[in-house]
Request: fold
Amino acid sequence: MAYQEILTVLADPTRRQVFERLRGGPSPVKAIATGLPVSRPAVSQHLKVLKDAGLVEERSEGVRRIYSLRREGLAELRDWLDSFWDDALLAFKIEAERTHRHNTRARDVNE
Amino acid sequence: MAYQEILTVLADPTRRQVFERLRGGPSPVKAIATGLPVSRPAVSQHLKVLKDAGLVEERSEGVRRIYSLRREGLAELRDWLDSFWDDALLAFKIEAERTHRHNTRARDVNE
DNA sequence: ACACTCAGTAAGTTAACGCTTACGGTTAGT
DNA sequence: ACTAACCGTAAGCGTTAACTTACTGAGTGT
Reply:
């Protein structure tokens, strides 16, 4: 999943609460919803979005769906963040590549 | 600034474009707006939001305002992301602290 | 078979927010 | 002083998206 989607998905406060609630370990929907300021269907909707973004995974145990964190889902966002700190290095690389006429990898400046 | 704000601020696509455009170095507003699919006032509004979030800084050069990246503004988001990868380690620490009755640092589970 | 719990989906409402146009203020050049 | 360029802000509009209620379905126990 692209970092863009991860950002938009995690931007919503209650969806972030849902996400962070899974830090404590896997949990069924009802347990997640308890204590949150929104209804249970709302939590279901958030979980669907989180799942589609690869930030959460789901398994069934009888009648309940157990959701758990997918930390790998955060990887792309993390990489994007990291890329900001070696912009100077990257600029140097590009210059080096230009002069040496030899490509390694490119990065989008605008998405 | 809190990571929550950084997420919501960077969630918008065109605002992210504005932000990423500054990777190439400081730039006046008009130059940023050129090539973007929105009007110049829209860019101004985005820049204000970015500035309030500490992701961008501004200086004046005559009649133009030069905006540049503030990479430190991303720090809190980065820390938050990192915190997901040592949850297990953190759990261990907490247990250790509990038994040894000796605090180091705490982290919020729910915002 | 019936009832109860858990959870996803549909439909509709409301509020937030990103955009545009219009305007005002500041700087620089002639 | 007049004009032009650069930019921020106000007001208003339209769309998106998060929420609620209502419904349906699947699993489990009696």
User: Anything to note?
Assistant: Confidence is low (pLDDT under 50) at residues 101-111 of chain A. Chain A has one domain: 1-111.
